[in-house]
Each structure stands twice: as structure tokens, then as C-alpha cells.
Amino acid sequence: MPKTRLAMNDDTTPVSAPAEPPRFDAPETRYVNRELSWLSFNRRVVAEAENAAYPLLERLRFLSISASNLDEFTMIRVAGLEGQASRGLETLSIEGRDPQQQLEAIRAELAVLVARQQRVLDDLRRLLALEGIWIATIEDLDKKQKAWLQEYFENDILPLITPQAIDPSHPFPFVANLGTGVIFRLKRGKRQADLVEMVLIPSGAPRFVRVPGEKAIYVSIEQLIVQFASLLFPGFKILGDGLFRVLRDSDIEVEEEAEDLVRYFRTAIQRRRRGRAVLLELDDECDEAAEALLREQLELDEAMVVKTSGMLGLADLATVCNEPRPDLKFEAFSPRYPERILAHDGDCFSAIREKDIVIHHPYETFEVVVDFLRQAARDPAVMSIKQTLYRAGDQSPVIGALIEAAENGKAVTAVVELKARFDEERNIHWANELERAGVQVIYGFTEWKTHAKVSLVVRREEDGYATYCHFGTGNYHPVNARIYTDFSYFTADPALGRDAAKLFNFVTGYIEPAELEKLAISPIGLQDKLYQLIDREIANAKAGKPAGIWAKMNSITNKGVIDKLYEASAAGVQIVLVVRGICSLRAGVPGLSENISVKSIIGRFLEHSRLWAFANGTDLPSKKAEVWITSADAMSRNLEHRVEVMVPVTNRTVHDQLLGQVMLANILDTERSWRLEPNGQYERMRVGEGGFNCHDYFMDNPSLSGRGKALAEHEVPHLSLRDRTA
Fold first, then answer.
1. What is the pLDDT of residues 293-332, one digit of tens each?
2. What pTM value is reported for the model?
3. 21 belongs to a structural domain
4. How many domains does the chain have?
């Protein structure tokens, strides 16, 4: 722990008495608000859009991602707080704010963040124009281009849109969630009263139209509607117009008495599209009368309206990012197929039987997970397959493999999580497809989400039945697996197979496992296991033994886990956390957490893998340390309201790969890392000469096996946690 130094005068007499030790009784001194921490994370995403070292279209993609993140945050988190505030609830956040206080703080931060996004867009538009890609206004175009746009509007847009008058005989139309439209104030003849008309942009219409030509010119559809409004309203004088966008409450609360979850969610998805409006976005030139009408009809107060001088709906810029300009994108990267399985001629079971395997996505391909299931589907010796499905994607080869297995006569059970937010409709579709093929589909618990990522294959072999398991930190989603960093752990360990079978029995039949040999499962014991492991480090520190914790996760908000880590820090346990997103823990605060450091890695890939490592009486990294991978973040929802698994990694090779390569490379990274300072702010770490980029490292060394030498060049193997945090 750091030593306190007294300022000395010339005759070595202390100038002042030691200050009173700081007190951390009040919640605001111990914790960071979850929502404000999330906004801090999204600021780091916007910073990637400002990163001049990135190709321009990748910077635009980060801007689009930050906007999409903000939409979801508004539809879920802000909507929830607004609902609590409107009902007069005084539920306090971890640091002691009530809903209204949180909303005030959030809105202040949002205003700054939205303005920053618009400034970034202005810069990127200018830079992209220099490269021949215009995100243009119609005024920028020549006569020929405008003529083409008018023809396009008449032939392709006019048939799609429907002007709707708003008056006593034409009620205010419904605007769906994320709906965008233009509202016009019109007049026909001198004596007639003004008329208000609304044009909603169909969700299936392209947001940006690409003008033919050598340059890539993109014009937003709302500009076309405004520019050519006279074709839509012949004989009318247009007095004013305004662009708007509506975000609605999109959370779905599951009622415990719901008798049929599929039917309930089908109805709930429809309700979500019509949820309570929580935000109205307007362009700052919106006609005043139109704005007043929108506020009134959507029942929004002033705090729920945002006006901007820039573009609305920046998430749609993802369309422009698809422009075929490889020179303005990251260099193409192809994930590697695991050498261990290739050495067994592609036989997954033979490779796993020989030794446990860890796959590091996206550097190593997700295709191996699909091949594992396909081989199980086609292998006559395989008797049964059990599989959890949280997010499977639109075109899911995993679903295809399970259907093939059922059609081949195998006993297939799929636990499909209907409550996976924004994937409910897709998951209902896949559940129907699986059931039609003869798969036994289970929807799990009504009150808990099944978030664990597990495959269990039972195979008949010469010496009896053998179990092969896949435990993942990420979803069985082939698209996400190309951009999310995750672990796939394959094992034939019989104890893990028995535990996995008990996990499935718990989800499918409510049979709570009385005794587990290796796995820890939430919500019935995972949190307690974490506490036990942290307590052991505390005991070792107090006994003068080496003590340390390394952990990697997406978020940490659970008060119990945070307090336990504070307790460990006070005992002298050295703790390094790699937390990509929300962090309600305060790091490096003297008297509270001086032995805890926190960093966030934001870069080309989205850090999603979750890992805990405990020194176990040795210096980290150490072969004797205890390593666990998990599907759970350190959040109350994961530890108390979801079915999750935490898996001990005892195989020596996999242990060393995860701890001595993956985890250590994340800790050593400087070029994509942000350090959490004691004041709660994040600061970029060193970039450039002497820095280390863990994403580049793993792209250059995509197979975990035999890569220690490369890390050794960065003085990794001999670095202890004590040295690192001294």
C-alpha cells in the first residue's frame, strides 16, 4: 500500500499534523451512478470516431454505433427512470440518487454528448468529401443530380409515403418507436385556415439514397420529402416544415402469471412498438406550430424534447459505412481455424478427447462451434444434444445444425430465451422452426433469463457414454462472433458434463442442483462462490502471502461484489479490473480502493469475454492461480436474476493461455485502453511508440497455442501483479 509522506521544513519538523483519514460512509463517495458511467462509456465510443489513426469509414461506423447505443439507452434506461419518476417512486440508485435526480444528471450529459456527435459528423463529412464520399445536402448538388433525385422521388418514394392531414376529422396518426417523419404547415387560398399534414417515413424505405456517379453521394430521404414537397401537395403553399423522430419505452416486463410465454411476447412486442413516448427529437428549424402540436399529441414535457442543428438518427449512417472503399476501412481480417482440430483431420470430438481446447473469438473462427454441432448432428454415435440459445441471429447455422440433428433421430433439447431484449421476435421464429423439426423447445424460467451459453453432447463410445461440453462467454451468434471478443471452451471432463446436465435439468424441470462438482450457477450460488474466492485472497493478504485478483468483464454494478473488492483492497490484495462498459466502483481512491486499478478497452473489436483469476497464494500470472470463465457480468441482474455459469479452467494448457496470454495482453494494452482515475474520469493511456495493442497482437497471433514467445518480447511472462501496480 502507498506510504504517507509528510511535508518537511528545513529542520525536518513536520509542517502539519497528519490529516484525518477520509470517510466513505456516504454512498456518493463509494459508488458511481450506473447510468452516468454508461454515458462515460459511450463518450469513449465517440472518441473512437474522433481517432485520426482510424480509417474514415470506420470512424463513421463508431459514430453510428454510439448513436445506436444512445437510442437503446433512451428506450430502456431513461424510459425506466421516467416511468419511476412519473409514478412518484423514490427508489434510490447505488450512489443515492432518486429517479428525478438521475434524469436531471443524465439529460445534462446527453445534451453535451449529442452536440459532440454532431461536431464529429461535421468533421467526418468534410474529410469524407475529400475522399469522394459526400453525405450531402441537396443544395450541394448540380442540376443533373437534382433532376435524378426528383425522378427517383416520383418513381420510388411517392408511392411509399402517405400524407396525413391533422384536424378534427383526421386524428393525430400513430408514430411508431424510432419513427421519423416530416410535419408540414400548409395553406391553400387566402381565406382558408392553415392545414397541418404529416408524412411518416416508412421503416422499410432507405434512409439514404445514393446518387449515381463516380463520387459516392448520399442524400437523406427526409431531404427529398422536403425538397419535393410541392409534388406531394400540389396547389398548396408550404408555410413551414420540421423533421422529427420519436423514441418510445421499449422494455418488456414479464408477468409471472403469464400462461403462455410465446403468446405473451407476441402481444408484448406489439405493445412495445406503441409504448409511451420518452423522447422527441427535432431539427432546430422545425416550424413552431408543428413543434407545439407534436409536444401536445405525444404528451411530452420540455425535458423530453431535444432540438439539434444537425442530422437526426445518426445510427442510420451505418448504410454509408457499407460503401465499397477498402482503402477507408480496417484492413481485412480472416479468423483462423484452430490448429488443434485441423491436426485431428477436423474431428472435433477426437481433438477435445485428447485435451481441452479454448477458442479465442474473433481471432479464431466461430465456425468451429458450428462444426462441433454439425458433427454431433451427423455422428451416429451421438445420442443427444442440449443447447441454450440467447441470441442466434438472422441466418443461424447453429439452428440449422440442431434441426439436422433432430431430423437424424437424435434427442435434441433447445432452451430458447424469449426475454433476450430486441431479439424476442427472432427467437420466437427460431423456436417455431425447431419445434417443427422435432426439437424439444424449452423457454426456461418466467422470472429469470437463461443467459448461460452451454452445449452438451452425449456420445456412445467403447467404454460407455461420454459427454462433450462447450461453455461460452458469448452468444451463439455468427455475426457477433466476428466482432465480439469471446471464449469458447471445449471439454470432455466428466465432472463438467455431469454439472452441465444438472444445469439443463434446473432450467427444463426446475430441479435445483443439490451438489455441483465444479460449476457455479447463478442465481443459486455463483455470487457466493465469488465471495469465497475473494475472501481467500483477503485471508492470504492478511497472512503475508501474495494475493491478487485479475478480472475482465463488460460491467460491474453489483454493490455486494464492489464492497467485497473494497474489503480486499483494504487488506492489501492487488486488483486489476478490465471493465469495458459500466463501472460503479471507484478505483485508486486512497482509503477506499488504492489497490484497485480499472481500465476500459475500446477498439476495433468489442471486448465481451469474462474471466476471473485469483492468485491463490502466488504472484499473478501464475500456474497455481485459479482461473474461471463466465457468462455473467458483475451486475445484480446477472448474479441474482439470470441463469449463468462460471466454469473453472483446470486444464494446464488452457489455464496458461487464458491467464498468461489473453488476460495479460489485455492488462498490458495501452493503445486501446482508458484508465479510470480516482476522480471518476477516464484518461487515455499511452498511444504510439512503446505502446501495446492487444487487438493487433491477437490478429497477428490468432492461435493461442505456442504464442508465449511473442508476449515475451513485451516482457510479459515475468511481470507480477505487484510489479504492475506498484
1. 888 888 888 778 888 889 999 999 999 999 999 999 999 9
2. 0.89
3. no
4. 4
